[in-house]
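Suppose a colleague, Dr. K., hands you the sequence of a protein chain of 198 amino acids and asks what its three-dimensional shape might be. Before reaching for any lab equipment, you can write down a predicted structure in token form. Begin with the sequence itself:
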Amino acid sequence: MEGTNPVNKKLAAALSGGAVLVLALSGCTGDDGNEELDAWAKQVCDDLQAQARTIKAANAAIQKETSDNSTPAEVQKADSQAFQDIADAYKAIGTSLTKAGPPNVDQGKKKQQDAVKELNAISASYASLQKQVDALDTKDQGKFAAGLKDIAAEMKKLGKTGSDALKTLEEGEVGQAMAKQQSCKSASASASPSVAQG
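The predicted structure, expressed as tokens, is then:
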């Protein structure tokens, strides 16, 4: 008996979208800026790099469990741990932004606060998904698959929303300053989803 089905692969594809949210903080190019803003960007990017690695590892763990013929219990355990890791990573990025303070740009404080609020909301969403996956019935393959399908749908929705404030934060000078940081370039590369589209 196979431990997984196409629903699990849909979940894996949906989950890969989660890493895209991290890229909102490190996707700009440019080379102008000021020293104070550069220092702010370095602090944020250095912290971001570690969390991007965590998110990448969590996504990889889910990909592995959902592509192998794992039992529902194994899939549940891997997904639960991954959701917790991702929730913790987004919360940590929010904490890092709080610690860094507002960037030295127009409306920097509002942009920073909106981004932190958004990151905490994303973290809470992943924590909620962890509770949902923990509650799935692993003894009933049909119920488990249906539950995973619901989670995959929520993941897809989460991947499409929730990065607006991050994009606003890294517009203009902030994005240019972050693009100069080697750690942000590394974070961008390490967080990129590697699964094929569709």
